[in-house]
Amino acid sequence: MKRFLIFTTKILLLTLLVLVVLDFVYTKVYLQSSNRGKIGYVYNSKGRVYDVVILGSSRANNHFVAPMFEDKGLKAFNYGMSGGHLFEASLFLKLMIERKYIIKNVILEADLNLSNEKESESVASKFMPYIHDSKVIASHFAQQPDFWTNYYLPFYRYIVFEPQIGFREMYNDALKKPTKLLDHLGYYPLGKKPKANMKNDLTNLKPLHNKYYEEIKHLCKINDINLIAVMTPMCTNTKGLDYFEKVHQMYPEIHNYEKAVEGDEYFSSCGHMNDAGARKFTSIILNDFFK
């Protein structure tokens, strides 16, 4: 029995050592990568200067054509994240401020994402490699139910979020293989889909007094950043469009552009404009805020 316990203890200690070593190697790779995604691009940088930073979900990523801002002489980048929530948008802004970015304007897509305060697992997981290296990230995740296991158990987060930050992604990061996520200054254009579903139902969606939207407002205020919060277009055949009016009643400072672009020819899906629609919408934003 004694020999069995000794053997078991050795196996456990060896396993723990392997996990610690793997955790160190994976994290070291991510701490040196900046060309595969927007999180690494921000985290492994410092002191950038922007006239315009764009934040939000895919409805920011696909709707704001960052090169059009540059054509007007405005240094800009679209940091919208497909699948992201305001939880991640707030953390993005915190990281930029921590990295001493100088930002004049933040354009924030704040519409459907106001209806929840949850983290987006697919996006939030990509911050996990930096959780021990950044007090900002650790603090932001501190109240999440899985914080203890992700923070204190070595290599656990790389196992749980294997599709996002596991071996394949780590390996590609180590080889510094670029992706298309940083092309077009972060803007991701969509094409026209002939068989796309041009119907949507927002009837059961309710905007919240969202804590992460409030965080973004506070961060902009104390860092002298002009916040431009907007609601972006939806296709015409959408039920429950009064959701956008409810948002405006709750937060009058959020500009309602839900009807700024109309016509299915401008949409790739009901909630996402194609490149032609995005360019038309971006022109309107430039004209309204950056003459």
Structural account:
By secondary structure, the chain is an alpha/beta fold. The chain has a single domain, classed as Rossmann fold. Helix content is 44%, strand content 12%. The chain is built from 14 helices and nine strands. Strands 2-1-3-5-7 form a five-stranded parallel sheet. Strands 4-6 form a two-stranded parallel ribbon. The chain is elongated and about 75 Å long. It starts with a helix and ends with a helix. The relative contact order is 0.16. The mean pLDDT is 94. This is GDSL-like lipase/acylhydrolase family protein.
Concise summary:
The protein is an alpha/beta fold and about 290 residues long.
Structural class: alpha/beta
Low-confidence runs of at least 5 consecutive residues: none
Shape: elongated
Beta percentage is 5-15%
> What is the overall pLDDT average?
94
Biggest beta sheet summary: 5 strands, parallel
CATH architecture: 3-Layer(aba) Sandwich
β-strand number: 9
Number of structural units classed as domains: 1
